[in-house]
Amino acid sequence: MNSKMTVGGNKLILALVLSILTYWLFAQSFLNIGPLVQQTYTTSDALLNIAVSLTSLFTGVFMVAAGGFADKFGRVKIMRIGLTLSIIGSILVIISDFTFLLLLGRAIQGFSAACLMPATISLINTYYHDKERHKALSMWSIGSYGGTGLSSVFAGLIATYIGWQWIFIASIIVTLIVLLMIKDVPEAKATQSHTSKFDFWGLVLFVISTLSINIVITQGGDIGWYNPTIIILVLVFVITLTLFYFYEKRKREPLIDFSLFSSRYFIGTVTSNFLLNTSIGALALYNIFTQQHFHLTGFVSGLITLPYMFGVLITIRIGERMMETHEAKKPMKLGSLIVTLGILLLSLSFLPTPIYIIGSLIGFLCFGMGLGFFATPGLNTAVVHTPKEKLGIASGIYKMVATIGAAFGITIFTTVYLVIDEHVSRTTGSFIAFLVCALFMFLSFISTRFIIPEAKEKELF
Q: What's the gap between Cα 244 and its chain centre?
């Protein structure tokens, strides 16, 4: 492996951050431009909703497999493939008004993100060490959370004043720049002591199980939780996941090495990460509630969420410093508690409108600050305790559970809101739905507190 070469530095960090922005800032902006896209494609609401969710679905389904590919075939190679797929997906989305190409482009964008996220995290852990790795992971998290926070405002501005297609033209330009920036980065992959066969059937079982549960989580509310289709998909998930587990336990070179989950550092961080990322559902819930109840435009409700991004930017490096001077658990626990506080402020929808809006601004600031505290220590704890030959697969699992957690949060919290809105009132529905979200955030704190062992970061190197 070429990882002994000194190839780190700010240029590579910038390239890695720009590469993940192709997903978090550009591809995810599709969530906010649906009506404009529908005018271009003159397609049905159902097909538009599929196009919106397709990228996240394919990202979540294929991320772990792509992490395994990065370990086996090379992290730089998989990153380049991901960037190329991003360009192809963006071109297909804007090249015509043919709905099939729109859906195909969104699916390819999902494959792209699935390749990029585990590969870029693995490259950070390969080419950066100690404090430099902490800094690189912080910059990666800024790209991830900052891109998410800026996405709605960015998409609204570009789509309103220039045209939504320019979002993806900009993505293509950024991607080409990144490809030039990494052209001399040496390859990094896991050392293979022997030639191993690719675990094809393991991949098939894993994709079927992950795809089925993702459809249940994201579409169950629309299709109906007791609909035979959803029930069948739940059974498919249980059966294929069981088969996958026992099949992989017998493989010499499995797709997923379950020994990763024997580490309390890894399982604790993954669990906390899953619970904390359900908070993305609070962003969706807030936009739905304020647009319905206060009749705000999507752009205005997006502006109210902007303190979320500023909060992330303020505290990410602080969380990094806390990790270096204390154990990583401290900023992780603090982050979970601050997010809990932020969500509680968002729940106070029964207050007079001006006071609630001010409380929301403070709430989103706390929301972002909490995620900022958690981001780098959480990601570092997950990868620093992982063997180098398993970095890609571990990174893929870590980000996959974040994606599934976000989808789970959107489904759970919006469903609670809509049910109570229908039978009681809108403000009661939002209040209780945000309280459920706050409970998940506190469970993230509990997971960090009791599962992850006490250990100071400086003792890990």
A: 24
Q: Is 252 exposed, middle or buried (0-12, 13-18, 19+ CB in 10 A)?
A: exposed
Strand, coil or helix: 251: coil
How many structural domains is the chain composed of?
3
| In a domain? residue 159 | yes
The predicted-structure confidence for 4-19, as pLDDT tens digits, reads as follows: 434 668 899 999 999 9
At which residue do the structure tokens 């906390």 appear? 272
- The pair of structure tokens assigned to 260 is 């990763």
On whether residue 192 sits in a domain, the answer given is no
Range of the domain at 160: 8-182
- Name residue 456's beta-bridge partners: 327
Map tokens 């199980």 to a residue. Answer: 209
One-letter amino acid for residue 138 of the chain? S
Hey, what's the torsion of the CAs at 71, 77, 83, 87, to 10 degrees?
-130
Q: Do 192 and 70 contact (CB within 8 A), yes or no?
A: no
What is the domain-level CATH number for residue 269? Answer: 1.20.1250.20
User: Measured between alpha carbons, how far is residue 300 from residues 287, 326, 413 in Å?
Assistant: 9, 40, 22
Q: What is the pLDDT of residue 414?
A: 85
Say how far apart CA 424 and CA 199 lie, in whole Å: 51
Its pTM stands at: 0.80
Q: Give the separation between CA 281 and CA 214, rounded to whole angstroms.
A: 15
From residue 460, how far is each of 57, 130, 381 by CA, in Å? 35, 9, 10
Establish if 272 belongs to a structural domain: yes
In a shared domain, residues 235 and 261 = no
The confidence score (pLDDT) of residue 400 equals: 83
Amino acid at 61: V
Question: Residue 420 above 60 pLDDT?
Answer: yes
The one-letter amino acid at 8? G
φ and ψ at residue 327, rounded to 5 degrees:
-70, 155
Say yes or no: 262 and 250 in one domain: no
